[in-house]
Amino acid sequence: MSSTPLLSFSEAKNLILQTAQSINYQQTESIKLFDAVNRIAAKPIISPMNIPSFDNSAMDGYAIREADLQNSHLLPIADSVFAGQKQINNWPKNSCLRIMTGAVVPKDAYAVIMQENVQKIDQAIRFDPEKIKAGQNIRYIGESVCAGSEVFPAGEKLTIAKLTTLATLGLSEITVYKPIKVAIFSTGDELTPIGEKLPSVNSIYDSNRFTVQLMLKALGCEIIDFGIIKDDLDLISNTLKQASKEADIVVTSGGVSVGDADYTKMALAQIGEIDFWKIAMKPGKPFAFGKINNALFCGLPGNPVSTFVTCYQLVRPLILALYKQNSHTNTFILKTVSNLKKSVGRLDFQRGYVHANENGELVVSSTGEQGSHITSSFNQANCFIVLEAERGNITQGELVTVEMFDSFLL
């Protein structure tokens, strides 16, 4: 098994996404609109009405007819219209209407002139006709949303702004996907739960499981925490079997490398299927992907930075794809102001910081040491510097690919 060739990062990610796209995740529920923040729409949301539902004024001002543009020397004010009142019909010719924001605009109105743009003289106004355009300051029926149109597609993340739009449509409930269930555990005799005293000098805190849980929570998953499992093949096998019965995805940290005590990979080979377990990426080479019963399996490396990067770059797109969401990344090319160390052979995700230089140009710098155990490299980072597999060391001033962090990491 140690001779298994390395998959390229793109091959591994494409295989994961193809697997996710072959699964028709259909677990849904109807919930109150108020409870739907950051949930995922399970079906297209169709508007039951027009927004606006009637032609209305966007400003406090004066409604005029097109014919009255010629009477701009002094146009009498015939009446006033307030928000919530019925439409005024048959208003006198050669006159205007005082109209407030949100009030119904008469059908024969040509425009609404802002009150700041008129000179009011007693009960009449004077204005410059050259500055008036058809439809000015009028919000027309259906201008924002048309009845029967798709407001949001299935798979849309329902942010506060999007839920506000749905509230204007009078929707009180929405159908969303149920949270994907993810079982998680860490392996290793050296691990100690956070908050407990380290039992020996060679013990470490289980920060990986904490990090993965935060990411899964940000993705809206239901987390089933199996805790820390000792390095025992039978114990890990039994835990994997139980986790696969309770969850849609099983995520582990540690035990997928090439060492004699990497029992997670050994257990997976016995009770499940391994699609691949080595990727030509850094950090994160020992990443296992497969299946146990009906649950997908993601085996993350044990080093903290490797866990972080593989969870973000591979587990996150898997979950988003199951929710019918795109994991598109915001990438562009910038000059580096740091020298970057790199060996040829693997795609490298280094932690970087995009900022403006003294000339106002965007550049990227390294956040420091990039070892797979140095989590402090993330503290000031806002992006990955993605270095191609065939590249070696990069000198200050060279162009590099930058991938900005998703909003849930910032």
Fold topology:
Elements: E1 7-8, H1 9-21, E2 28-32, E3 45-46, E4 56-57, E5 61-64, E6 75-81, E7 96-99, E8 111-114, E9 119-121, E10 124-126, E11 138-139, E12 150-152, H2 160-168, E13 173-177, E14 181-187, E15 191-192, E16 204-205, H3 207-218, E17 222-229, H4 233-246, E18 249-253, H5 263-271, E19 273-276, E20 279-282, E21 288-292, E22 295-300, H6 304-322, E23 331-336, E24 347-356, E25 362-366, E26 383-387, E27 399-404
Helix pairs in contact: 1-6, 3-6, 4-5
What does this protein look like?
- Helices cover 19% and strands 30% of the residues.
- With 410 residues, the chain is α/β, with parallel strands linked by helices.
- It folds into 4 domains: 7-26 and 178-322, MoaB/Mog-like domain (Molybdenum Cofactor Biosythetic Enzyme, Chain A); 29-51 and 149-177, Molybdopterin biosynthesis moea protein, domain 2, CATH 3.90.105; 56-139, Molybdopterin biosynthesis moeA protein, domain 3, CATH 2.170.190; 331-409, Beta-clip (Beta Barrel), CATH 2.40.340.
- The strands form 7 sheets. Strands 8-5-7-6-10-9 form a 6-stranded mixed sheet, with no helix packed on it.
- α1 (9-21) runs parallel beside α6 (304-322).
- The longest helix has 19 residues, at 304-322.
- It is elongated.
- The model has no long low-confidence stretch (mean pLDDT 92).
